[in-house]
Amino acid sequence: MDKTALRELKKGIDGGFRAWTREHGDAVEAFFEPIKQMLIWSEKFLLETPWPIILLGIVAIAWFASRSWKITLMTFVTMVLIGYFDMWDNTMRTISIMLVSTFVSIVLGIPIGIAMSKSDKLQSLVTPVLDVMQTMPGFVYLIPVVMLLGIGKVPGLLAVVIYAIPPIIRLTNLGIRMVDKEVLEAADAFGSSAWQRLKNVQIPLAMPTIMAGINQTIMMALALVVIASMIGVKGLGQPVLQAIANQYFTLGMFNGLAIVGVAIIFDRVSQAYGKRLQSHSEVVHGK
User: Fold this and answer.
1) Nearest CA to 47 among 79, 77, 91, 100?
2) pTM summary value
């Protein structure tokens, strides 16, 4: 393609997308309004609740999910250090958008993964889309969402969800497909309907694999939260961006370590919970 034709093609695509955003932008914003309110509520709750209560709640969740005093102690020490070095508010903002984006990814991803596990044709159609979503550089996701929704929380959340949702879809599909066929035949022999077989057999047995998908979704969401700070998402990413722009080594290092600390907490807690589910599954089914 010669340069003139290529330039005209790019201008045509950009112009068409801009025209579409002008025509449908308000409708798209209205569609995402509930998610915006969820973000506002979660951030307000984490910031306005006294920090000892939030700290106690995070430590309690770590204990009940992992039942490991080492992970619980690590969680407590990490969160205390984050607060001691004056990064508590930004950490709460980061946790807020990460939790909401993970929730949206789970709500959308698990049904898609279940549908893929039931249809080879659907799997063949969705898998290339997931490949593109996982390999596309994170910065690229910011361009269309900013053109469509502007700068703020919702565009950042949308970019995070697009980047983070593939693992939960893939591993939900994989986990359900890996359920032993003999177990499914036994469920059919007892007269289970398709819904009962899915709810009572396939999902419980696939839950450790699904939890691994949730773990990877959390990690990818945290990875993009820093990039999303470029379009106005508040949190630990903004000081890192400021440190890059102004060459503030200590500011960037401290906030980067805070992100690492939060990532390690969620990674260890979700992994431990997944292992507990696996152990429970092995005991129940006599493996």
Assistant:
1) 91
2) 0.84
